[in-house]
Amino acid sequence: EVQLWESGGGLVQPGGSLRLSCAASGFTFSSYAMSWVRQAPGKGLEWVSAISGIGGSAYYGDSVKGRFTISRDNSKNTLYLQMSGLRAEDTAVYYCAKDKVGATFYWDYWGQGTLVTVSS
Amino acid sequence: DIQMTQSPSSLSASVGDRVTITCQASQDITNYLSWYQQKPGKAPKLLIYDASNLETGVPSRFSGSGSGTDFTFTISSLQPEDIATYYCQHYDNLPPFTFGQGTKLVIK
Q: Residue B108: how many CB atoms within 10 A of its CB?
């Protein structure tokens, strides 16, 4: 059974940093691109970042480019999102999501989400 | 960047009704479109991919169609458990992999 479990969310001050983790199980982690998708309170879904299976290619949305870094450790079956320069508008539930096929960038499994709150 | 325009933003329908949601891309995305269902407090769930392929385990009352820039999502006979917000999302070629604004479906 595929499982994704995010952790690392919490309250952080504007300008601060936070690292999210997503532990994966139930599939060959290195064979699939992974993404982060976020949802601000009461708002729609926003794709944030994606990384290829072997980690050689990373992609970012314009709103986080230069501030967030996606990475993965395939030996630990874990996906990361290092967030810095956090702003109030980064407040959201952050989901990690598994690519359905390999690197097609739509997602068949999602974690339960972790809440990041940026506030002073 | 490709923009996805989804309509309506909210929809009220009765159990048994046929429900249709549309999604328009700002440029040709071939059939690289997915549809998701999200219930309150839950993660999104993949329903349709490649515009018209039903995800495994998803009831057949859900369907998708379209290609190019215009796409449609249909629930053939609305059930109470279908109350949710629905999103389209493109995955054509390069990021960002944009979602539509969402359609909130409520029971009349």
A: 9
- Walking along chain A (120 residues) 10 residues at a time, the average pLDDT comes out as 97 98 97 97 97 92 97 98 98 98 93 98
CA–CA distance, A73 with A1 (Å, rounded to integer) = 20
Contacts of A83 (CB under 8 A, 6+ apart): A17, A18, A19, A20, A64, A67, A68, A90, A116
- What is the predicted pLDDT for the residue at A24? 98
Task: Tell me how close the Cα of B15 comes to any Cα of chain A, in angstroms.
Answer: 25
Alpha-carbon dihedral sign for residues A102, A60, A54, A10: negative
The residue with tokens 């809440």 is A115
Q: Do residues B42 and B27 make contact, with C-beta atoms less than 8 angstroms apart? A: no
**Number of A–B residue contacts, CB under 8 Å:** 54
- Phi and psi at B10, nearest 5°, equal -145, 155
